[in-house]
Amino acid sequence: MHKMGKRQRSLFRGSFMQKLMYKQHKAALSKISSAVDIGPPHIKKDVYLNIRGMRNDKYALRRIIKENIELLERLNQIRRTHGLSNSYNTHKRISQTKLHHFLRRIDDIETENQFLGCRLLNVKPMLSKSGIPVSARSSSRLKFERSHVSLKIREKLLMDQLLHPKIFLDLEVKNIRPLGRVVIQLYTEACPEMVLEFARTCSENKSDLFKFIRIFPGLWLEGEIAVKNRVLSKSNFQHEMNMIRHDSGSCILSFAKCYLTNGFPYGLLNFTISFKPMPVLNGERIAFGELIAGHRVLECTQDYGTKNGKVKKEIVVVNSGLKAYIAV
Questions:
Q1: Angle, alpha carbons 207-210-211 (nearest 5°)
Q2: CATH code, residues 157-325
Q3: Which of 4, 8, 210, 238 has its CA 20 to 30 A from that of 112?
Q4: DSSP 8-state assignment for residue 246
Q5: HSE on the CB side for 165, CA within 13 Å?
Q6: Helix (H/G/I), strand (E/B), else coil: 264
Q7: Strand ranges (DSSP E) for 201-314?
Q8: Distance separating alpha carbons of residues 189 and 244, to the nearest angstrom
Q9: Where is the PPIase cyclophilin-type domain (predicted)?
Q10: Separation of alpha carbons 255 and 197, rounded Å
């Protein structure tokens, strides 16, 4: 037998050890377990099918159907009773004042007085200068025709100043630059007390009582006057709802209808000046004046407003007065 050499013995020993290590490594790999869960995910049926959401939708649908049925029954009852019982309308009914009836009565009395004056001017004596009675034939020829006696120009202007005063306000961006003058014509027939307060404040040049609190570009300019009026602080003061229509033009001076129910806060009168015609405000706001000059000045104030009404720069009134008392 040939004896194995030293080199052959080392190769045999090396191959044997490699095989043994390989077997041990393979056995160790077979016992390894993964630290990460690689199995399929666990399906939650209630989340996947959204059972809870479907149940909530079912209950909501039942509630909506029930409310709709109750609403239809309510509407049916209101229609059958013409809204006289159990109505949703909780607003207090605002009774109209008798101001327009008074104004109409005044016009009728004035017309009758003018007609009576015409008759008195056309009356002829029953006796002549010589004392002879005038014949019935000549007296029958007298015809009394109704005619209107025209007032003098001075009286017309005076009446216009009293019933439709014109006020002016000089506006300025505080501590920055002046904007200009706006002239507003007021209508006493719309709200006598409100017009009186505006005219009184401007005639006394109490400009610091005016304050503009909100500006809505494209909508209106909202302001306040710090005056005390006991009549306006009470409900249902004299007013005429349709004296000026909001769709007749822009720059309409008005106040909210809600003040007719509860009155203005004592010491504070709120008003707005619109930037454009707004037919939607007819019947909702009482208009008592309109801008007749200074439209561009009013348009410039829109640059200092925001969508939510907050004023960027404070706009103040530096001077005010009655247009009738100043030289043009």
A1: 135
A2: 2.40.100.10
A3: 238
A4: T
A5: 21
A6: coil
A7: 210-216, 220-225, 252-256, 269-274, 285-293
A8: 10
A9: 177-322
A10: 14
